[in-house]
Amino acid sequence: MQDNFFARKRINTLLFCFLMLVITMVSIIATDYDVIRGFTSIPKAAEWAFGNFYPNEKALSRLPDIVNSLIETLLVSIASTIVAAIFALLFAIAGSHTTGMGGLISWISRSIATLFRNIDVAAWSMILLLSFGQNVLTGYFALFFGSFGFLTRAFTESIDEVSNSSVEALRATGAGYWSIIAHSVIPSSIPQLLSWILFMIETNIRQATLIGILTGTGIGFLFSLYYKSLNYNSASMVVIVIVCAIIVIESVSNYVRKVIM
């Protein structure tokens, strides 16, 4: 019996690997991608990067402007995530199986979250550009909408994982709906909720760079400006600052997760 189980598992694994190989080959043929040329061009790309894409003295003189743009990007990312988390928590409570009101309200909450989650942040930026133009507000709302959809789904799943025993115990004592949420659901799921918020902040800082290129704001705009003007030294300085900022924020985020989990 056990041998048959492992045999079926091996067959399923082989079939999956074969299917992925077929999909890869079809994709290569459909896109006319030259695999050999792609790999052989890597050394040339690395040679160009080491020869042109490095900060010099002139790029270092632009460091204050780069840092100011980075701070703007960080603040927009954090603000949009925190505000989105507040709205996401309300929608997650309404749509959760544990705390949801059920019926039409839960369905609407989950549908709105699904809609916002399945539209990419870059697509939100392009849509909002038509209404707000190239400014910080466009980037803020793009990050907000993307964060709202993702966090609503994540919060809903975190709340659903809360043990129903404590909820049922409070209901048996005659506790009200909001009392159960405040004294059972939120305290039990708060570590997971905070962890998702920290993850979203990290993600939005990365996304904000791309959004800045589209909206002409923040550190993404500086990178686009330097790169398009062939000022590769300053562009490389922007990349280094972004990487350092992400590493620091990720380290702080991981430390906070260890403390709260």
Helical segment count: 11
How helical, in percent, are the residues? over 70%
Just name the CATH architecture of the largest domain.
Orthogonal Bundle
- The tally of structural domains comes to 2
Notable characteristics:
MetI-like fold, 2 domains, 11 helices, mainly alpha, 261 residues, 87% helix
Account of the protein in words:
This protein is mainly alpha-helical and 261 residues long. The protein folds into 2 domains: 2-51; 56-260, MetI-like fold, CATH 1.10.3720.10. Helices cover 87% and strands 0% of the residues. It has 11 helices and no strands. The longest helix has 39 residues, at 177-215. It is globular and about 70 Å long. The model has no long low-confidence stretch (mean pLDDT 82).
Kindly summarize this structure in a few lines.
The chain is mostly helical and 261 residues long. Helix content is 87%, strand content 0%.
